[in-house]
Design a protein that fits this description.
The protein has 681 residues and is an alpha/beta fold. The chain has helices at 15-49, 54-79, 114-125, 145-168, 175-180, 193-216, 264-279, 299-307, 339-349, 365-369, 380-387, 391-395, 413-422, 439-453, 460-470, 476-492, 504-525, 530-545, 547-559, 576-583, 593-620, 623-639, 641-649, 658-679; strands spanning 9-13, 82-86, 100-106, 134-140, 231-234, 248-253, 284-289, 318-320, 361-364. It comes from Sesamum radiatum (Black benniseed).
Length: 681
């Protein structure tokens, strides 16, 4: 009789959250219907009587409609939140595991310090996975000798580090993280003299490794090239017999020419897919950012709990892991943990799986190629249209293909020529690899395609999730309207909301407080503090007023041909003074005035409207009529107190510059005067 196979994973529906979410949807949805009834009745009355300015009422109504549209879409995330449990101990033996390729991309050692990048590389090599089934590829889009030297040094150090990790089953396998935190040590070995002696020796080796990288990183920016031939080097050491216990480590610098489009990171990943196909050709690919190390060495085994399940594996394209950040302070001023997104992922997962988060995921190579249903007798020329002119790459599509890398891991002349051809800058252009569109619009394009072509393949709720992601930027419009129009109307005594004595006052109050309390409930049920709610809300307002605004404008201008979208590499080099402010719980406002001025202008406008509005209310004794309009700026001013602190109270280097405060006051004055003419008169 066949033995019952234990499940490798289990999905748990979060029933309490599910019930709360659906009750919230029902009651708030009902309140929104009542709110819109009030708005339509009010607009109808104004159109007939002309006893109040029409434009502000119309703008507020449209903004409420847009926010409601986005709210409806986002309820799909709340419909069926789930969590998952995996059982790696139930997996078959290591000999049954499929190979995994790891892709890591870097571009400029002056902005992405080699030590941090190499820590990511080493942590990937140290995954708790059979080393003979693991290959790590570092794409260096700068073609920098600094990065190549760092990879060679990382290879040498890893010969010490990996055996140490395996011997003592370390949980933290990023050496930088391990040696910087006492809690990284396993309690089992704290009093073990052999362990402590070996750890000390490894730490000395790591310090030597760091010193070597630091010495070679002088003038790192000058080592970056945008015009170079392809460089591919598979690390090897012919005199070291321990090499067979090491994963493959390959350095790949694809060809770059100023006259050829390179598609930024997307192009780098495409080159890695092709090059890796003829070196290791693993059926699964782990994608990591260069500053995201593998904090859990069992992640590969966890992913295999899904991929080795014959029931779901054929329908599975990727397994996504969340991003966690090691340098988050207790304050988390900038919402760096991004828990608002990961909370959504719990609901997205319950509808068939989340979308790709950009990195930290195990991809199925077959899903990338789209070759699941390919026929054996397909015409070779047809495949070349899709995969280019490389016969070796086309052969690698077959499940029976085995790469021919020698035991000493030295590429033959023919192999070296082949991988250089696959990493050339014109390979994309002669095949469908090159038909990728513009990188800044790629994410939007993918989401739109999911919305347009998802019908019949995805559930309605899944489509709603993708649509919510796609249309997220439009909240900038209602945000600016509701951050300015009611405030300006308060100054002029124009009533936009029901009086306290009006039954519809309860409707508006319920919509506001129910929304905020739901946010608080989600934050705290996820395990965060009440202050996390405040930090998330603050960052939402600041991003809406600045980065989301400019991103939306840039996308629109790019579409109509008035602006060329471009990619700027994030600087990952640390700043001690910024870090100190962050750890002390103080915002650093030393950003461009273009980013700071919009939110400061809105803040000043809200302060002025509240002060003038309260004076008008006291003078006219109209507190019951204007209560909601006075509450709106008061709420914004209190929640975003950090802006008042930055403009008025703080004197340190992280404050808002006086020149920015003056500029913001001038913008607020102009907006108030101009908008008053348009909206009121």
């Amino acid at each position: 009789m066949e033995k019952t196979r234990l499940p490798l994973h289990h999905c748990h529906v979060m029933k309490t959250d599910l019930i709360i979410n659906r009750l919230y949807m029902f009651f708030l949805g009902t309140a929104l219907l009542a709110l819109f009834y009030y708005r339509t009745a009010t607009l109808s009355h104004i159109i007939k009587t002309r006893d109040s300015p029409l434009v502000p009422h119309l703008l507020v109504f449209i903004s409420e409609l847009l926010f409601t549209f986005l709210w409806v879409l986002h309820q799909a995330y709340r419909w069926r939140p789930v969590t998952r449990t995996v059982y790696p101990d139930r997996l078959p033996g290591d000999d049954k595991f499929p190979p995994i390729d790891v892709f890591i991309c870097t571009a400029d050692p002056s902005k992405e310090p080699p030590l941090g990048v190499m820590n990511t590389v080493i942590s990937a090599m140290a995954l708790d996975y059979p080393p003979d089934k693991l290959a790590v590829y570092l794409s260096d889009d700068g073609g920098s000798y600094v990065t190549l030297h760092a990879v060679r040094e990382a290879w040498s150090f890893s010969k010490w580090w990996l055996p140490f990790c395996r011997k003592y089953e370390l949980k933290t396998r990023c050496p930088g993280a391990y040696f910087s935190a006492e809690e990284s040590r396993d309690d089992r070995f704290i009093s073990c003299s052999d362990f402590l002696a070996e750890e000390k020796k490894i730490e000395i080796k790591y310090n030597e490794f760091k010193d070597s990288l630091e010495k070679n990183s002088v003038n790192a920016s000058s080592s970056v090239s945008r015009d170079h031939a392809p460089i591919i080097e598979v690390m090897n050491d012919a005199v070291d017999s321990s090499q067979q216990e090491m994963p493959i480590l390959a350095y790949v610098a694809r060809e770059k020419r100023p006259s050829r489009p390179h598609h930024f990171k997307a192009g780098a990943l495409n080159a890695l897919i092709r090059v890796s196909a003829v070196i290791s050709n693993a059926p699964y690919i782990l994608v990591l950012d260069c500053d995201h190390y593998c904090n859990d060495p069992t992640s590969a085994r966890q992913a295999m709990c899904y991929y080795l399940d014959p029931e779901i594996s054929p329908k599975l394209a990727f397994v996504q892991f969340p991003q966690k950040f090691h340098n988050i302070s207790v304050h988390d001023l900038y919402d760096g943990r991004m828990n608002c997104y990961w909370r959504r992922w719990l609901g997205f997962d319950g509808l068939g799986g989340p979308s790709i988060a950009g990195c930290n995921l195990y991809l199925k190579r077959e899903a990338l190629y789209g070759t699941k249903n390919i026929k054996n007798d397909i015409d070779l020329n047809h495949l070349k249209k899709s995969f280019g002119s490389s016969n070796e790459l086309i052969r690698s599509i077959s499940k029976n293909y085995k790469p021919r890398l020698s035991k000493d891991r030295k590429l033959t002349d023919a192999q070296a020529k082949e991988v250089e051809h696959l990493a050339s800058c014109d390979y994309d252009g002669r095949s469908e690899w090159g038909k990728m569109g513009s990188w800044p619009n790629a994410d939007f394009t993918v989401k739109v395609l999911c919305v347009l072509y998802g019908r019949g393949r995805m559930s309605t709720l899944q489509i709603m999730c993708y649509t919510a992601n796609t249309f997220e930027p439009i909240h900038v419009v209602p945000f600016y309207v509701l951050a300015a129009v009611p405030q300006i109307c308060l100054i002029h005594g124009t009533l936009l909301y029901p009086k306290v004595s009006d039954p519809f006052f309860i409707v508006f109050a319920f919509v506001f407080f129910a929304s905020q309390l739901k946010h608080v409930q989600e934050v705290m049920s996820y395990g965060d503090s009440l202050m996390s709610f405040v930090y998330e809300f603050r960052m939402w307002t600041m991003r809406s007023a600045s980065s989301y605004l400019y991103a939306s404008l840039g996308a629109v201008l790019d579409k109509i041909g008035l602006h060329d979208a471009h990619f700027t590499l994030t600087n990952k080099a640390g700043d001690d003074k910024q870090a100190m402010l962050y750890q002390e719980g103080r915002y650093d406002f030393q950003a461009s005035p273009v980013l700071i001025a919009p939110i400061c202008s809105l803040y000043i406008l809200n302060v002025v409207s509240f002060v003038v509005g309260i004076a008008r209310i006291v003078q006219t004794k109209s507190g019951g009529e204007m209560f909601i309009q006075a509450f709106i700026p008061l709420f914004g001013v209190i929640v975003n107190y950090q802006l008042f602190e930055g403009m008025v109270l703080r004197k340190d280097r992280g404050r808002i510059a006086p020149s920015v405060s003056v500029l913001s006051a001038a913008i607020a004055t102009f907006v108030l005067c101009f908008a008053s003419l348009v909206l009121i008169y």
